[in-house]
Amino acid sequence: MINRIVAAAALVPAVLGATAGSVPAQAAPRTTAVVTLTYDASGAGKWADAIKKAAENWNTAEHNVHLQPATSAGSADFVYKATSGWPQSTLGPIFPGGSGEVQLGEEAVTEGYDLARVVTHETGHILGLPDDYDGPCSEIMSGHGPGPSCTNDKPDATESAQVDQNYARGASAARLKARHVVVDVWRDAPAFATTR
Fold it and tell me: According to the UniProt entry, where is the signal peptide (predicted)?
């Protein structure tokens, strides 16, 4: 009798959890063909290692899109360039044949921000993610919000799922829309976006 009571007591939380509104996490939709985006980092200078790390971070997190270096500079879907200003990027999602650009601003480095975090964040814009400066350090799109002591350079599960959703229909889902440039002001001033 005691064993039956213990067994029944063990089932109560499981049954309540299933009926009390808890929803199991669903896997991100997978496309039939992974979208491959190519990038050109020939103009990125000292950012080269951080770019490799950012591509690795996104490739590890994603199912529906894969980043790889372009075979030639003119064939890239987006480019990385070292600049003297603040980081900024085209807001995607960018698809094959696109024309995105990531400007890797030296001013973020001068302020003490981690290179791999900056590149992974800016690449998130290419993949269609907006800024969330109020987010925690664990969110790559929180950018400069948590301050320069935050060195997390990996997207969280929610960000990863959104990018997978952006590319779930494969390359045929290329959307014709106005492109925006997101300027990430990696200090206390507010960021802004301009239409390109």
Answer: 1-27
CA distance 36 to 184: 26
116: tokens are: 């791999």
pLDDT of residue 27: 53
**DSSP line for the chain:** -HHHHHHHHHHHHHHHHHHTT--PPPPPP--SSPEEEEEEEEE-GGGHHHHHHHHHHHHHH-SSEEEEE-SSGGG-SEEEEEESS--EEEES---TT--EEEEEEHHHHHTT--HHHHHHHHHHHHTTPPP-TTS-TT-GGGTTTT-TT----S--HHHHHHHHHHTTTGGGG------EEEE---SSSPPEEEE-
What homologous superfamily does CATH list for 30-195?
Collagenase (Catalytic Domain) (3.40.390.10)
Contact 118, 153 (CB under 8 A): no
Q: Which of 62, 122, 139, 159 is catalytic?
A: 122
Of 73 and 67, which is predicted with more confidence? Answer: 67
* pTM for this prediction: 0.76
Domain ranges of the chain: 30-195
Give me the mean pLDDT over the 166-185 stretch: 60
Q: Residue 57: pLDDT above 50?
A: yes
